[in-house]
Write a structure and sequence with these properties.
Number of helices: 9
Largest sheet: 6 strands, mixed
Distance between the termini: 56 Å
Low-confidence stretches: none
Strand content: 5-15%
Length: 241
Amino acid sequence: MSVSKQLPTNLHEKITEIAKNGEKFGVAVSGGGDSIALLCILIKWANENRKQIFVVTVNHNLRPDSVEDAILVKNLCSKNNVNHSVLEIRESVKGNLQSWARDNRYRLICEWANNKGIDSIFLGHTLDDQAETFLLRLARGSGVDGLTAMTSKSYRDGIFWLRPLLHITRKDLRKFLDDKHIPYVNDPSNENLRFDRIKIRKVLDSAKEYGLEAARLVETSQRLAQAREVLNHVAFQFAKK
């Protein structure tokens, strides 16, 4: 059986593990391959486990066709009887574009979740996202804290953020969607080299022959997370004395 066919089954256990006993969950879906694949897997999981999921799409209004991205998500949700909301960012861009977009996205999603009584939201971060973040922070001179791996569950601004795809590659998620003929958006900004993350992505693509692979980088960031735990424990014990 191919990796893409095994994905839903393999992920259900991980999803249940990080979801705990919750009954109501949000899912942030942009329309891109990662989040669309996550949504499709969560719909099946929610139906089998009697959970409620609510989908939210943030329109950053940075591209003329961004409305079409939201419509694609809406149609998928309608087909599966899933509640879907679209949030609009109306502010002008200030400072770094990607930081501006990320901060506004989290702000709006938190407000939406609070209004719906949702305290846990699924995100589509992948193994590739982890590797790219590691290299970005390495280039900026981050220390142990900055270079540690993403966690499958974190807490920020009163919300639990759940990331069940951290060990799954972008390639496998798209294979899963293509096999099932499920449409998704290919954001043209993913080819725009003025963004640091896209530059890093190109570096990773061309550095595999030297052993610089996403999985290897994620392993390193996980070891740094373990090192951070040890350092924090030692510092705590020292402080007690």
